[in-house]
């Protein structure tokens, strides 16, 4: 399978614990995006990378959230001291740099439940 | 990027054409119209995009009005597997990050 893969697909954790999600983009794609989606809502942009550089972060990305893409390939999204409001689907997407175009390819998502 | 307005839900009979409307009255000249869909428990999937001209691919057709203030996504022969939330998104060339801003979308229910 050459699509975007995310791991784990499901995570249940207790409030206050740290969690980390991993995203492996399509191999030749140099852009990687993280989105969050709560029930009944459309995905909301969190942050994106071009290669290893994190170029933009949404105001939704609080200090408890950190994302990395150390070698410009896979990325991790860590949430520290989780809260019940962090329960959501975390989606990763990748694309090639194409101004005005360049479709995003999404993974299946990592669903987080904070008890 | 311009905002879009879509009906929250629509029904379509299996085998019939599904016509999903989208209003984007504030669209500017360099902004593209994108359509994505999200089947339950999956990530969003790209369908089609266009600037001014109508576009067609193996999944759907995109009809953009001459003034570009609205568009329609057409699924010519809807199947049960087309049941999903369909998102209309406007994105401009000035959007350096090529981010997509999703609204609420239209929940399409294809019925037998």
Describe this structure in words.
- Chain A has 115 residues and is an all-beta fold.
- Helices cover 0% and strands 49% of the residues of chain A.
- Chain A has no helices and eleven strands.
- Chain A has strands at 5-7, 10-13, 19-24, 31-37, 44-50, 53-57, 65-68, 75-79, 88-95, 105-106, 110-114.
- In chain A, strands 2, 4, 5, 6, 9, 10 and 11 form a seven-stranded mixed β-sheet that branches. In chain A, strands 1-3-8-7 form a four-stranded antiparallel β-sheet, with no helix packed on it.
- In chain A, strand 7 (65-68) and strand 8 (75-79) form a beta hairpin.
- Chain A starts with a strand and ends with a strand.
- The model of chain A has no long low-confidence stretch (mean pLDDT 92).
- With 112 residues, chain B is mainly beta.
- Chain B has no helices and nine strands.
- Chain B has strands at residues 9-13, 18-23, 31-38, 45-50, 55-56, 61-64, 70-75, 84-92, 106-111.
- In chain B, the strands form two sheets. Chain B has a five-stranded mixed β-sheet, with no helix packed on it. Chain B has a four-stranded antiparallel β-sheet with strand order 2-7-6-5, with no helix packed on it.
- In chain B, a hairpin with a 5-residue loop joins strand 6 (61-64) and strand 7.
- The model of chain B has no long low-confidence stretch (mean pLDDT 92).
- The chains are: A mainly beta (115), B mainly beta (112).
Shape of chain A: globular
- Strand proportion of chain B, as a percent range, falls in over 45%
Q: Which chain pair shows the most residues in contact?
A: A-B, 28 and 25 residues
According to DSSP, the number of beta strands of chain A is 11
Which class of secondary structure composition applies to the elements of chain A? Answer: mainly beta
Number of helical elements of chain B:
0
Mean pLDDT of chain A: 92
Terminal Cα span of chain B: 37 Å
Helix content of chain B: under 10%
Biggest β-sheet of chain B, characterized?
5 strands, mixed
Instruction: Kindly report the spatial arrangement of strands forming the biggest sheet of chain B.
Output: 1-9-8-3-4
